[in-house]
Amino acid sequence: MFRDCLRLKSLVVLILALALLGTGRVFGAEATPIKHLIVVMQENHSFDNYFGTYPTANGSLVDSITSKLHAVDGLPRGVCLPQGTSCVAPYLSSASNTPNPVEGQVTYEQDYASGMMSGFAEFSGSQSMAYFDYHQIAAYWDYAEEYGLADRYFASALSTTTPNRLLLLSGDTPVANNYGPPPYLNYNQTILNELEAHGLSWGYFDFIDTYGSPNNVYPFNYFLNQTSNYRIMDISKFFGALSSGTGLPAVSFVNSLGSDVFDEHPAENVTQGELWVVSVVNAVMSSSYWNSSAILITWDEGGGYYDHVAPPQFITIDHHFNQPLYGYGQRVPLLVISAYARENYVSETVLNHMSIVRFIEYNWNLPVMNRNIMNSNNLVEFFDFSSPPRPPIILSDTGPYTPTVYPIPLQSSLNQTMSSSTSAVSITSSTHYFYELAPAVVVVAIIFLLVRAKKKAHATSEN
To answer: Which CA distances in Å does 359 have to 151, 268, 362, 407, 421?
Structure first.
């Protein structure tokens, strides 16, 4: 019996050692060269509204570069959605802004009309059918050309800003629409607390003067037991850390909600907001952090703008809501910019805001917080960590690349940019899931050995 116990202990130690050696999993240690993640979240634009005619602007801009760029699942031909006794077709905005489409959880469900995507003009208004292209947002199209663009990235919930921004930070939301607080969300259930618990820094940056103090910054006003207000800082602190080369957190959430000019919320000028985002990207690219950073640019929800792709209904959240919250929500753009990002890469993997949390947990070897995040796909396919870091592409009026011109020259020859998301996933997913499943395998193995030893001991005692 004593020998059996020794053998069991030896086997348990051996399995744990092999698992740790095999995965290299150390909580808080980077699994990739990315040591700094910058998440920029703007307001209220769907994928079709910004990239529905990318990369050739419906065939009106075809040259030696755009003709060979990856196509996207953009605006379909011949669409005309009913409005009263007539219909409204998608149209190119002649300005850099439109009136705000009608918003709301119920309105968005009516827009999608049970998966038919036919209610936008009727319920969110004719302005919902407007779209922009390189005339207004050339820089965003440049980033799609030079780095990564997600073609199947969705808001986490078919609703408005508040639940989607809370889902980004926690994988859950106590509200189904823009109301409250109360109710509140426990800070201990957020990715911010998880980062702190494992010795990792984070920073939340916005135009703080608008709120008066960090305690009032949205959406932190929804958190109970939040004790890290010193990590909520004015946007100037973010630019200062980049300029000085010291103090940039492991994860930075960069926002313009405190600005009435830069957040791109209709009816704000989308070009002004885009140029502010370009200033954020340029500051990272010009800093000493470029080779260890990744920048994610997305929009919290579609804002009622038309998108022809029906959101997959993977989750339902209902904390005694008047109406359950369904997810995912509207398809929105995601741009992935990094020295390790694949050039001209279009992902067809189904993703959502919680995929950002999934990547954070993967990159820093953190436990997965909840089921909603566990069921969200990772972003690792956007990166090629086997190649040397790429030099930055700084968009500037005085440099070789300008934020008002699309397309710009590619860094690699065109025949090197035509990688597919399928090949990238096949390379990365097996390693990714091995890392995350290894601890579970260890636990199962230990339980098996314990049960086996118990049965053997019982059999021995009976004999």
So the answer is: 18, 31, 5, 30, 17
What is the count of structural domains for the chain? 1
Q: Is residue 439 part of a domain?
A: no
CB-CB contact of 337 with 281 (8 Å): yes
Tell me if 332 is assigned to some domain.
yes
Query: 66 in a domain, yes or no?
Result: yes
Q: What is the pLDDT of residues 355-398, one digit of tens each?
A: 999 999 999 999 999 999 999 999 999 999 999 999 999 999 98
Asked if residues 298 and 264 have their Cβ atoms less than 8 Å apart, the reply is no
Q: What is the dihedral of CA 162, 168, 171, 175, to 10 degrees?
A: 0
Domain that holds residue 70: 31-419
Q: How confident is the model at residue 336 (pLDDT cuts 50, 70, 90)?
A: very high
**Measured torsion, CA atoms of residues 292, 147, 164, 196, in degrees rounded to the nearest 10:** -10
- Please tell me the distance from the alpha carbon of residue 137 to that of residue 407, in angstroms, as a whole number: 11
Q: For the whole model, what pTM was predicted?
A: 0.87
Q: Are the C-beta atoms of residues 169 and 434 closer than 8 Å to each other?
A: no
Note the pLDDT tens digit of each residue in 224-233.
Answer: 998 888 999 9
Please report, rounded to a whole number, the percentage of residues in the chain having pLDDT higher than 70.
Answer: 84
Of 38, 145, 16, 41, residue with least CA distance to 363: 38
Domain assignment of residue 139, yes or no = yes
Q: Which of 73-82, 159-168, 210-219, 280-289 has the lowest mean pLDDT?
A: 210-219
Q: Which are the contacts of 154, defined by CB distance < 8 A and separation ≥ 6?
A: 311, 312, 327, 328, 329, 330, 331, 332, 350, 351, 352
pLDDT at 199 over 50: yes
Angle 308-352-366 (CA atoms, 0-180°, nearest 5)? 170
Which strand (E) or helix (H) includes residue 408?
A: none
- pLDDT of 260: 86
Q: What is the CATH number of the domain that holds 359?
A: 3.40.720.10
Residues 293 and 36: their CA atoms lie apart, in Å, by 5
Length of the chain counted residue by residue = 463
Closest-CA residue to 72 (of 145, 6, 125)? 145
Residue 10 above 90 pLDDT? no
DSSP one-letter string for 414-444: GGGS---HHHHHHHHHHHHHHHHHHHHHHHH
Residue partners of 402: CB distance under 8 A and separation at least 6: 395, 396, 408
Residues facing 438 on adjacent strands: none
